[in-house]
TrEMBL record:
Keyword Nucleotidyltransferase applies: no
Isomerase in keyword set: no
Domain of life: Bacteria
Binding site for S-adenosyl-L-methionine: C309, A310, G311, P312, G313, G314, K315, E334, D367, D385
Protein name in the entry: 16S rRNA (Cytosine967-C5)-methyltransferase
PROSITE patterns in the record: SAM_MT_RSMB_NOP (PS51686)
């Protein structure tokens, strides 16, 4: 990376007129006059983009490629920002590329389009100096798309770099009259996602129809900001002091949480051993809430805990640690064999601790919908972290917004109801069921619980707000009227986790 790019990554503008003149001169050269190759960071970013186009997940594909290419430090950071930014912003960038190219992106070869998305992000999203962004994108195109494509990329990149980001947004939104659709384009979200999140903000009481635009804007903008790396110190296995020793900082939000501002969490001994883990603080808080609520009646006499949908094991890791401290038997269930294996690995440290404490910790591979029949009324606390669209964690999964569709919400709705019903069947009278999603979509959250409350007479809702307490014991702010808890990235700094707490009454 050049000095300009390092400055750009620090957010400094670097576009002196002389360089601009030089950029114009260089970009007006025929691509064949500039036959050099691009740098490994951009090439790796391009390879990741192609894998993502084939269905890979950015958070899995990119770290593997960075390792294979031995990219570390600033180069790894640069490649990561390129891939995450170009993928997240591809809705907006595609509109800009189409305008600059004078043709719909459907008529541009998919490989070339990815090269252009990476180039657009450097110019519009990263403030890499224009000449470097254009030259390197053309060099990348020459290397991976061929000489013919490089000429086209050169022309499109030159046009993109003629306007600043605000001018482009104005241009590509000028024909859009609906304000939510305009916002969706500006913040690069599918329109249906922006509309669903708008309805969720209102439906969960976080905004009114009159003031929702400001909240929606803040929410959609946060989706485009890199999420901090949050860590959990699993109680009894690690501690916040230990994580601080590795450079993490307590946030004060989760009593067991810290953030790592820089560095690889995988380098931390406790994370490698499974005594600590990377985990959103909203997820930590809902596990702590379920574990700290009062169970009553027969459930209180014989505590046993169940995580019904445990893969890959993040919440099970925290729940298991808490169960072991209290010598409570714990079962983590998961339907996917591969993900059940991941739970087994994630719980390695907890399994050892359970053996030492002579308490039971089991990983079950099976359909959670059967648990009501397999283990009826057997558990005192059941967590149902249901499969969902993940619309509350878009900042962590750059490709997710483009993969999901409204049909997914409908397809998941029935499964979510069946899992919640089975979880209730598996709960002993007086016991608690925590229903969670990393989506605030009303059809995956309130409506699922409301439906079960209508169909069953053996459950009641417990107000969960008082159980969401920060490191100093204070209830989290802005939890609205309850009884459910809906966290928001733009308010709480967590993923948009939903949590409903139900008590089995009969
Ligand atoms: C949101 S994820 C759970 C995340 C997990 N609690 C964690 O914190 O790491 C939902 C999980 O439910 C699993 N799942 C889907 N259908 C299921 C079913 N019928 N029974 C049990 N698990 C299921 C999925 O494979 C997925 O691993």
């Amino acid at each position: 990376m050049s000095d300009d790019e390092h400055r750009a990554r620090r957010g400094e503008r670097q576009r002196p007129p002389a360089r601009e003149r030089s950029a114009r001169h260089r970009s007006e050269q025929r691509p064949s006059e500039r036959a050099r190759r691009t740098d490994p960071a951009r090439l790796t970013a391009y390879t990741a983009m192609r894998e993502i186009a084939d269905g890979a997940y950015a958070n899995l594909a990119l770290p593997r490629l960075l390792r294979d290419k031995r990219l570390t430090g600033r180069d790894a950071g640069f490649a990561t920002e390129l891939v995450y930014g170009a993928t997240r912003m591809s809705g907006l960038y595609d509109a800009i590329i189409a305008s600059a190219a004078g043709r719909p992106v459907g008529k541009i070869d998919a490989n070339v389009l990815d090269t252009l998305r990476l180039g657009a992000h450097q110019v519009l999203g990263m403030r890499v100096a224009t000449h470097a962004a254009v030259d390197e994108t053309v060099a990348l195109a020459r290397q991976v798309n061929g000489a013919g494509a490089a000429g086209f990329v050169n022309a499109v990149m030159r046009r993109i770099s003629e306007r600043d980001p605000d001018e482009w947004v104005d241009l590509v939104t000028q024909g859009i009259t609906d304000p939510v659709e305009r916002l969706a384009m500006r913040t690069s979200h599918p329109v249906w996602v922006a509309k669903a999140l708008r309805a969720a903000l209102i439906g969960h009481g976080a905004a009114t129809p009159d003031d929702v635009e400001a909240s929606l804007t803040a929410l959609l903008e946060v989706d485009n900001e890199p999420a901090k790396v949050s860590l959990v110190a699993r109680p009894g296995l690690s501690s916040l002091d230990e994580l601080e020793g590795w450079g993490a900082t307590r946030t004060g939000l989760s009593p067991v949480g810290a953030v790592l501002d820089e560095g690889d969490p995988g380098a931390i001994d406790a994370v490698r051993d499974g005594r600590a883990a990377v985990q959103d603080e909203g997820s930590q808080l809902l596990v702590l809430a379920l574990a700290s609520a009062n169970v009553e009646g027969p459930a209180a006499a014989d505590e046993r805990w169940l995580d019904l949908c445990a893969g890959p094991g993040g919440k099970a890791g925290l729940l298991a640690a808490l169960a072991i401290e209290r010598r409570i038997p714990f079962v983590a269930n998961e339907i996917s064999e591969h993900r059940a294996d991941l739970v087994w690995q994630t719980l390695a440290a907890a399994r050892a601790a359970a053996r030492d404490a002579d308490t039971s910790l089991k990983v079950r591979h099976g359909d959670g919908r059967d648990m009501g029949e397999v283990d009826p009324a057997a558990y005192s606390r059941v967590l149902i972290d249901a499969p969902c669209t993940g619309l509350g964690a878009l900042r962590r999964r750059p490709e997710a917004r483009w993969r999901r569709s409204p049909g997914d919400v409908a397809a998941l709705a029935w499964l979510q109801r069946e899992l919640l019903s089975a979880g209730i069947d598996a709960t002993a009278p007086g016991g608690l069921v925590g229903y969670a999603t990393c989506s605030p979509h009303l059809n995956e959250t309130r409506f699922v619980v409301a439906d079960l409350l209508k169909r069953r007479d053996d459950i009641e809702v417990v107000d969960a707000r008082g159980l969401f307490v920060d490191a100093s014991g204070e209830q989290l702010p802005a939890l609205r009227e309850g009884p459910y808890v809906q966290l928001w990235p733009h308010v709480h700094g967590t993923d948009a986790m939903f949590f409903a707490l139900l008590r089995k009454t009969g």
